[in-house]
């Protein structure tokens, strides 16, 4: 039997929350991000996107492109609250919800008899009524196509991709739209004259595998509308970490700390995207003689900011002996708050 998968993604999430909390910002180009010129844009309202502003752009550049923009600081705590409200609506429909980030999830509604388009409109209506935000919804019979569909008419979009529309509807799309084709693979394919899904459909499976490695097989099937990945409810991660073997063994704390700064930024970005916080910070080192040491600190409060994570990591490193040379340095945060599990238990009793 055909599955019924819905993919939901809030529109300009952080910026929309700012506009909802402060009605003076409605209809204005709102840019949410770091407050200094050295910061980056987290996201911006669709009004600002018209001027070419987008996520991850340096603030100074956003100011150049959109000098009359309203620049506001990031309020993660507030976004997590709103995210929880929205996820409650999803869990009110089914328990088979797979959160992908703070504003995005898959729902498997195969077992719900109601027409999936009606369910999608119900979600949109509930989200706007209970949070004042708009959400884009994609409906299809697998994950790849549902996600593609939610992006189709953003913002406030709704789109259904049916089996009989495949492959025609996919043919004109850029290969960058295909889940699994990253920037590097896209460039590689562009170099041999492959730009659209239509071009890609002409490549034999063996060639794609040869060319793209192990994902080639999945991509071959995906663009033919075959994607059997299941919607897996709330995969909870226990920790998030980064580590690196250094080019040469090092005794310099300053050099090691530079890596900790980069790791902290990476980890913080991940936590914020997922809407979770961490309570324990662990630094790991491998000495020149290959001995591994780890040292942890557990805090009273949960954190997600890179400066906070680095602050703790740096203090921990100060307590570690580096004089005999360090081969590898790593940083992990754990003891994660689970934003989503709370909702699961809340709705457990309501579901079939
Ligand atoms: P997205 O869903 O990628 O973006 P969006 O909701 O702002 O806009 P839309 O879906 O309408 O295209 O990300 C959700 C939130 O995650 C976003 O509001 C802010 C945050 N985020 C960052 O902080 N940095 C980033 O680089 C990205 C992409 C998102
Ligand atoms: Mg979004």
TrEMBL record:
One of its GO terms (molecular function) is magnesium ion binding. It catalyses: DNA(n) + a 2'-deoxyribonucleoside 5'-triphosphate = DNA(n+1) + diphosphate. Its cofactor is Mg(2+). It is found in: Cytoplasm. Binds 2 magnesium ions per subunit. Residues 5-182 form the UmuC domain. The active site is at residue 104. Pfam families: IMS, IMS_C, IMS_HHH. The keyword Magnesium applies. It is an enzyme of class 2 (transferase). Monomer. This is DNA polymerase IV. It comes from Paramaledivibacter caminithermalis (strain DSM 15212 / CIP 107654 / DViRD3) (Clostridium caminithermale).
């Amino acid at each position: 039997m055909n599955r019924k998968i819905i993919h939901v993604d809030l529109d300009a999430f952080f910026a929309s929350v700012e506009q909802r909390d402060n009605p003076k910002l409605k209809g204005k180009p709102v840019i949410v991000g770091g407050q200094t010129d050295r910061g980056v844009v987290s996201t911006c309202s669709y009004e600002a996107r018209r001027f070419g502003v987008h996520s991850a752009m340096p603030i100074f550049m956003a100011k150049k492109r959109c000098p009359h923009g309203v620049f506001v600081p990031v309020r993660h705590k507030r976004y997590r609250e709103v995210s929880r409200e929205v996820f409650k609506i999803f869990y009110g429909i089914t328990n088979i919800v797979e959160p992908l980030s703070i504003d995005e999830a898959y729902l498997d509604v195969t077992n719900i008899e109601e027409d999936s388009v009606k369910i999608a409109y119900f979600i949109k209506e509930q989200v706007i009524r209970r949070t004042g935000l708009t959400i884009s919804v994609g409906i299809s019979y697998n994950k790849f196509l549902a996600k593609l569909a939610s992006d189709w008419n953003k913002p406030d979009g709704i789109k259904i991709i049916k089996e009989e529309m495949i492959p025609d509807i996919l043919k004109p799309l850029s290969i960058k739209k295909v889940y699994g084709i990253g920037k590097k693979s896209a460039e590689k394919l562009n170099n041999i004259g492959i730009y659209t899904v239509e071009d890609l459909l002409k490549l034999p499976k063996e060639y794609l595998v040869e060319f793209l490695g192990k994902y080639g097989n999945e991509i071959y099937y995906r663009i033919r509308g075959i994607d059997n990945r299941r919607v897996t409810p709330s995969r909870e991660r226990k920790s998030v970490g980064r580590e690196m073997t250094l080019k040469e063994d090092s005794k310099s704390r300053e050099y090691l700390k530079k890596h900790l700064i980069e790791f902290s930024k990476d980890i913080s970005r991940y936590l914020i995207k997922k809407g979770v916080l961490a309570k324990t910070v662990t630094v790991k080192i491998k000495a020149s003689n290959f001995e591994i040491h780890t040292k942890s600190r557990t805090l009273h409060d949960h954190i997600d900011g890179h400066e906070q994570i680095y602050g703790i990591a740096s203090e921990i490193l100060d307590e570690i002996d580096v004089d005999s040379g360090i081969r590898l340095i790593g940083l992990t945060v754990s003891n994660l708050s689970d934003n989503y599990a709370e909702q699961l238990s809340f709705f457990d009793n309501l579901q079939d």
